[in-house]
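REQUEST FORM: STRUCTURE PREDICTION
Request ID: SP-0412
Submitted by: Lab K.M.
Chain count: 1
Length (residues): 173
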Amino acid sequence: MIALALLLAVQTTPLERSIKVPPSDYRALHFDIRNRPATLELAYQVSQGSPGVRLRVLPRVDENRFRAGRSYNEIAGTELDSSGRLEVYLQTPGHYIVIVDNREASRGAAVRLKGLISYDTLTRPAIELATRRKSMVIVSSVAIFLGVAWFAGRRLWFANREQKTPEPPTTSP
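STATUS: Completed
RESULT:
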């Protein structure tokens, strides 16, 4: 029972933050997905009197592109709203950011984020090669092995033939 509780504790990472986003600006929360795919679940609530915000999930490498106003790879996002939920499956482990975007508002926003990162616990089935490709791998592996064995054996054969064992000296009685 304790082992199960520890396993479940390791498989999820809770997130809870309160963020103040200035008008016409954004804030970024950095997080990492390690070793295996995970699901990010976020719920957000903007405090009363604050304008709505938009959440975006990006790979961390695209943060500078977002900041510069260039095209970037948005994995998931929400509409401009004062509350909502975002759920995204992140298949590739790596570095990500959640952007709380308030660039469309003329007033600052106080945002409360609650979320969870749940790692996949299921094993993935192994991918098998197609029969034709398997045959090609086997044939090419055997051919390379035989080629190396032939080349090495040939050199050893000739080296062995060139070595002559000296005849023992003859003694006369």
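NOTES: Residues 128-159 form one domain.
Reviewed by: T.R.
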